[in-house]
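INPUT
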Amino acid sequence: MNAPLIYALTGAALFVFGVTGLMLQAHLLRKILAFNVMGSGIFLVLVGLAQRTGIPDPVPQAMVLTGIVVAIAATALALALARQLLDQSGEMRLPEEEAGKDKLDV
Amino acid sequence: MFDPIPWLILSPLIWATLAFVQGPGRGGRLAVAGVALQLALAATLAQQIIAGGARVYAVGGWGAPLGIDLAADGLSAVMLLLTQAVALPLAFYARAYFAAHAAPLRYFWPLTGYLLAAMNALFLSADVFNIYVTLELLGLAAVGLVAVAGGAGPVSAAMRYLLATLLGSGAYLLGVALLYGVYGSVSLAALAPLIAADAPTAVSLAAALMLLGLMLKTALFPFHFWLPPAHGNAPAPVSALLSALVIKASFYLILRLWFDLFAPIASVTAAQFLGALGAGAVIWGSLLALRQTHLKMLVAYSTVAQVGYLFLIFPLATGAAAEVAASAWQGGALQAVAHGLAKAAMFAAAGAMIAATGRDEIAGLAGVATRLPLTLFTFVLAGMTIMGLPPSGGFSAKWLLLGAALASGQWWWIVVMLAGGLLSAAYVFKVLRQAFLPAEEAAHFKPLPRTLEWPAFLLALASLLLGLWASEMLNLLGAA
Amino acid sequence: MSLNETLPLLVLASSLLPGLIIFSLPEERHILRSLFNLAGATLKLLLIVYMLWGVLHGEEYVFRYTMLPGLDLLFVADALAMLFVTLSAALWFLTTLYAIGYLENSPHRSRFFGFFSLCVTATVGVAMAGNLFTFFIFYELLTLSTYPLVVHRGTEQAMRAGNVYLTYTLGGGALLLIGTVWLYGLAGQVEFTQGGVLAALGPEYAGQLQIVFFLLIAGLGVKAALVPLHGWLPQAMVAPAPVSALLHAVAVVKAGAFGIMRVVYEVYGVEFAHALSLLLPLAVAASVTIIWGSLRALFQDDLKRRLAFSTISQVSYIALGVALFGPVGTIGGVVHLVHQGIMKITLFFCAGNYAETLGIHKISEMDGVGRRMPWTTVAFTVGAFGMIGVPPLAGFISKWYLGLGALEAQMPWVLAVLLASSLLNAAYFLPILHRAWFRPRTETWPEEHIPMQKGRETAWLLLAPPLITAAATVLAGLFAASAISPLDWAKLIAAREYLRWVP
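OUTPUT
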């Protein structure tokens, strides 16, 4: 097993952890952190897979940099919304889906 | 020759920033002027493409692979035209809509500008990573717009939407990473010839991840859970923008990826599966729309249903004869445009009715036929496209799709389309029926400014006339 | 664009534009509204007279616009189209007059007259459609524009009727749509062509064509109220009388019957339909409808409902005529399109007069009404006798040709159907006439809206239209042999349809 593959597999594992957390955690802060774990996993795959020749490829580096900026913006927005939600409902979690909104047997 | 491509992205960025600096009030006027300019730019681009074929623009003079290329073909031009054509009447509408309350205006115009910039950039992107960036920007601006009015309902809907959209773009980006890992390129033009039927499994995995992510963002059944609260809770102009345009952006990408990039590895089974999800959306979305008691939720579920029709392209066009595939593809594109115009009109009309009656429930609509005839007429015209009744754009789309289904012997999609059509008639007429009832004694109708009624009417009229001008649109669509 | 291309569009515009203008007029501008309405109706009639003369002399009025590649919007004013156009335009003019009188001082008149004009536009579009696709467009528009008229009163009952109406008509529209798309896939653009176009397809398509025929007839049969697709029609009678008169006795049901005519003669071709053995099932369906409608009519006490069931029965005479293989049966079917229209509208006008003048809705309330409203009752009597088929009224001519056609087509059992139907017609119309003329009035009228004035039994605008159509019923029968009668025009159509066939 070579180094790029190890990076990529680690990245994939992080992605899976992140997605699981994003879907299953109820606390919003945990969800936001899970999103960041997921992002890091993707970045690792991106950089890891690309260095097959042994020479670092600059293009994925640039892409990851861009990705990090986007992720920071998204995290900031998510935190701002979570904060507003906390102010208004006093809870750091999403309210349960209103009963019957997506069910036929209302 | 003047090149409209960069200005289509710069214009909304400029006016959005100015609107943010200027603060509420003057932002609206800037936006209207900016969108009008963009409409002219999009029309210019469309003419250039009809005359001279697809265009490529190297940003800053640096072409791919080091620089970023922008590209425009017939499909991009159609989507760009649709975006600006929907945004312009909505800009007028939003000015009237927000005239009453000043608070949400502070962020509405800047966010709308960024949304349009991201969307225009998305339609012009020529590489899968650039698409990711525009997709993410689009998502963030859209989430901001859902929360623009504040309040617990909208904010939690926005949060839900944000998480869904981040998950979607995450899956998409992982797919991009895999593609880059295999081929060392992100350019659509460079990747397309590399992907062949015997591509490694990683490519299929990448394709699946990218499509899944985009399906989540398009709110395809069963990933539609975030859409009704987000579209139903946002202010009417925002709902209109989101339902008409934002989900079309991710659908546009699915179309591009499926037909331009992954065509060699696209299997009939996968196509049938996408079609089945689409069918599920048509039936489930329509049934739920029928069950709603609130007007905007009904319209939002109708979007879930209408998105389903779009996904019938894939089974009809994959593995079929060239003529059938072309008919399905054209039908799907036409449906995307027709639904964009009609749904914007429908949400705008719903917003006007709610503003006038002061109630969001369908039960509160009694008397609308007498007091707001123009707005109800708008709802009917838009409803014709939603129901697929002639001579609307939705009908022409359905005709093409039905023709493709018959020609390829896939009768089960015909059943879905007809059932969907009848169900949509049921929920559209559910609203109309209520509107024809005599007004309650206690009902109080607020007089509406004309700018709250006419833009919606023009949008609905456009969705109807699209049926008569479909040849022109298909002509542009076919320009390569 | 030449004049001949523009004329079909002008005929459409002459009711579409007044309709749109009327929508935007405020409720109280009733004089301006009536002016627009009548100007449109008059203009339409003038255009049609000009075109009739042209069609008779072999002019062609064709307008074509390509909506999608291989999909044209096509209007053709041929002899058959002109028959239906003339009928609807003439009756629209009379019904407009009648409606102005009928709806005096009732609310939402702008909306009513607006949609009314749209309905007429859709009907004229159905009539002039030159291919199946165009026909379908206007067929659906007719559904949409009649819905607001059915629910016009906004009562619970009207809303329910509206639901039933939509369920039937939209369902039928969906069937028609599949049939149409299917045919377009098989044969390209299906343009209405004398003698039909499908015979050119090979025998391997026979099975598919039979299924398509079934889909098309089922779709059209909803509006033509073929049993068992007729359920909406009696319900739709909650609409105001002018709507029942023009739309549910003439425009809507005729759109269905007319469509059946187009499909059999000009899509399949009557010979080819005969060869595919499609005509016999159609004849059976029509016969069942004729008998069933008449039987149900017997047991209705509500006057408009009885007339509705009578419509169901009588409209199927047209389908029956179509199903009789041979030119004589065709003549009977085509001429009945006109005759049934003028007779039934007379009856509905009269029913409206009874309701509007004296508040009479039920047959059991009609005792002695002949003395109070003699002119209306005379018109009603003419219409009823016409329906029964008493010579020399218009209905007799239809039945005569249908009977001869049945013999020609070697389907003598159809004669029994015609006879039974005529007896049933007599059984449900004669008691009404007996009550109206011969029973004495013992109690007061249910609700007298319009009192007797200077010997005038009701308002002029209400009285004139039924008298005119009753007169037309008499004249169409008496002068059936003349050159300008509906019968003569029907013969012209039959001659053209069987052009390639008549030995």
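end of record. The longest strand of chain B covers residues 55-58.
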